[in-house]
Amino acid sequence: MATSVLALRPQRHRRTSAVDAALVYVVLRVVSAATILLAQRDQPAVPGLSRAPYLGMVTHWDAQWFEAIATSGYPHHLPHQVTGAVAMNQWAFYPGFPFVTRLVMQLTDTGFAASATLVDVVCGLVAAVAMVRLLEARIPRTAALSVVGVWAALPMAPSLQLAYSEALALALLSLTLLCLQREQWGRGAVAAVLLGLTRPMVPPLAAVFAVAIWLRWRRRTLDPLLRAERRRMVAGLVATAAGSALWPAIAWWVTGTPDAYSRTEAAWHHGVLYPFAGLSDLHPVLWHGHVLWLRVVVVAALGLSAALTAVAVRSPRIDPLLATWCVAYLTFDLAVGNMYADELRLLLPLFPLVAVACGVASTRLARHWRERVWLGITLGLAGQYAWLMLCVRFLPGVPRAP
Q1: How buried is 246 (Cβ within 10 angstroms: 0-12 exposed, 13-18 middle, 19+ buried)?
Q2: Residue ranges of the domains in the chain?
Q3: Could you tell me the pTM of the whole model?
Q4: CA 167, 295, 335 angle in degrees (round to 5)?
Q5: What is the C-alpha separation between 212 and 182, in angstroms, rounded?
Q6: Which residues make beta-bridge pairs with 80?
Q7: What is the distance, to the nearest Å, from the Cα of residue 196 to the centroid of all Cα atoms in its chain?
Q8: For 39-87, what is each residue's pLDDT tens digit?
Q9: CA dist., res. 61 & res. 42, Å (int)
Q10: Phi-psi category of 48—alpha, beta or left, where left has phi over 0 and alpha has psi -120 to 50?
Q11: Which residues pair with 350 in a beta bridge?
Q12: CB 256: neighbour CB atoms within 10 A?
């Protein structure tokens, strides 16, 4: 009897952590919803832009591209400007989020904004639950829940409820990392391939998959590695690596243009696309005296992320797979990202760094880690209004988000 009771405790503990993580996430999304409504009061009237309470605000910028995909799909030929260069078009946006939203639209008979909001809520809950289970493998339960709370309150966290692909991508990312942590190679590969159809985040994830295999290989003497598991490991790694090329291959197949995806991406980068191009854009900003303070904030956020990543690599409570993810993703993001404000929301996948900032990643928790948590939540919620006003609000004459 005693053995059966002890066997039930871990399951009950996991269920409680999942429920608590969901509650924390929902409360913070409600607060963000109120902030979105507050920011919407200062949204100028723009022809063609919805002024519906809340739902109008969540369909700005990239959301308009996702809506076009959800309702009309992708073009069969790349559109061109009068100069002959490829114009901005839907192929820059991956199909996972708009196609899932389209399915919800058909099942619920609702519009794009309402369906996208429903998709975001469900996916955000999945991401929060998976994150807390990833973290509590080495971090005490209360501290892990607190980390998820600070992450969900970050200034750019409202993007998790905009009609963007962030929530779906983070759900798939968290599930992939959780499967790799548990050495569920097949499930991890499936989640990674689905992520490859949602956001361009699979290349660094392939590095994490390789490290997970290496860690399993190191203990093969104590825990024999059967042939069937070897096959699953290799097949999973190959599938994950191939997932990074899946969407460009689909774009090639549909349009008949081999470099359709890269040429479309270049349209968002002034026609030039090469590694670390975003860093080269900093030269006129930082060295010629034309200081754009929003870009300085982006650079500071990247610098802070790099510093926290360096600490995370040596933190005993950060799983090696999570540390590898932070190093690989930050490097990848610097290689393909830009120095505009949308870079801030691209830092959301670095959720393990929040544990370092809160002081819960060391062998002994920081003395005032709870105070750090409350400070992080307070500052994050205050920063959400500024982020919404600067990066989500649509201003006439501004061609893209700052």
Answers
A1: middle
A2: 14-261+273-392
A3: 0.92
A4: 65
A5: 10
A6: 86
A7: 12
A8: 998 888 888 788 888 999 999 889 999 999 999 999 999 998 888 888 8
A9: 17
A10: left
A11: none
A12: 11
User: How many other C-beta atoms can be found within 10 angstroms of the C-beta atom of residue 22?
Assistant: 17
In this structure, are residues 111 and 71 in contact, taking their beta carbons and an 8 Å threshold?
Answer: no
Residue 298, amino acid: V
CA dist 148 and 136 (Å) reads 11
Length of the chain: 402
> What distance in Å separates the CA atoms of residue 169 and residue 177, rounded to the nearest whole number?
12
Per DSSP, the residues of 377-394 read HHHHHHHHHHHIIIIIS-
pLDDT digits (tens, 9 = 90+) for 243-297: 999 999 999 999 999 999 999 988 877 666 666 666 666 555 554 444 566 778 8
3 Cβ neighbours under 8 A, 6+ residues apart: none
Decide: helix, strand or coil at residue 80. strand
Instruction: Find where tokens 């190959």 sit.
Output: 238
Q: Letter for the amino acid at 395?
A: L
* Residue that has been written with the tokens 């409570």 in this structure: 317
Structure-token match 């389209």, residue found: 102
Residue 105 has a CB neighbour count (10 Å cut-off) of: 20
* CA distance linking residue 147 with residue 174, whole number of Å: 14
Give dist(CA 318, CA 315) in Å, integer. 6
Place of tokens 């549909």: 254
